[in-house]
Amino acid sequence: MRFKYILLLVLANMLWAGNFLAGRILRVSMGPFTLNGIRWVVSAAILLVIVHQRRERIPFRYEWKAFLLLGFMGMFLFSSLTYWGLTMVPAGEAGLLSGFTPLAVLVAGFFIAGDKVRIGQWAMVALSIVGEILLLGGGASASGSLWGASLLIVAALAWGIYTALGRRYRHRFSPLVLTAGAAVGGAIPSVLLGLWNLTTHPIHLTVESGLALAYVSTLASVVAFMMWSTGVNRLGSGTAAPFLNLLPVFTAVLAMLLLHESLSTIQIEGGLIVIAGAAGSGFMRSPATLSDQAPVESMLE
Q1: Is 293 part of a structural domain of the chain?
Q2: Is residue 295 domain-resident?
Q3: How confident is the model at residue 291 (pLDDT cuts 50, 70, 90)?
């Protein structure tokens, strides 16, 4: 049975890796903000159906500020910046940059949620920053690529803030209600910016891009979170944390296999340093510091 939940953690990261590839494919079919708007409208609708089936209620009337804030940071800012960055940065490089996300969660948790951080973990943050610098220097030879890579780093910071805020609200909402409410809150600015993006980047869907759009709206948004949360709930956050470091590895490998991208030696070295820093920090974590990394409860039962 333990193997089953480990497999769910692995598959969740694989689906999240596919999100980077899909975002890269969709850059020629629509603007990044239009993509994000469509993604979260569909995902929010699916999550609302799940909430209804589980007979829970989202208190939008009384907690709309909390859901708008969570949605702005996690679904709007994080996803918009990620897709925007993917218009300028190859998926493999973007995946390696995503290795900074666990460290962003650590730092945001310290400043926002008051999580305890060990001295060794700060050392791992510094190590990952060195890796990020190597990544930027090794792959961002053009100004557009450097700007895109910077957007992806800011996106990681936005996810860290979202996760830390989620920890502050974890006693007020169930994980499912928190995530569904944030998805609705994030869909609002995502749709508004997406409609504006349509004026400059009309939609031109092909069969390939249509499948990619369906993928990011369902498998990468809802199914992956369900898999991850089930694994976390069964195995514990301390066991699940290191599995997050599979995301940049899966993304880089899939980008090379499916999109025929390549990575420079210095990019690979920088990515490995980032992953090493994140993994080192994860293994130093106390058992209860990552339960809100993906704030969705177990829904596969």
Answers
A1: no
A2: no
A3: very low
Alpha-carbon gap, residue 223 to 103, rounded angstroms: 24
What is the C-alpha to C-alpha distance for residues 147 and 233, in angstroms, rounded to an integer?
38
pLDDT class of 287 with cuts at 50, 70, 90: very low
Q: Would you say residue 144 lies in a domain?
A: yes
Q: Residue range 51-69: average pLDDT?
A: 93
Which one is predicted more confidently, 28 or 101? 28
For residue 224, the enclosing domain spans 2-284
* Residue 299, domain member (yes or no): no
- Evaluate whether 296 touches 229 at the Cβ level (below 8 Å): yes
Number of structural domains, the chain?
A: 1
Percentage of the residues of the chain whose pLDDT score is greater than 70: 86
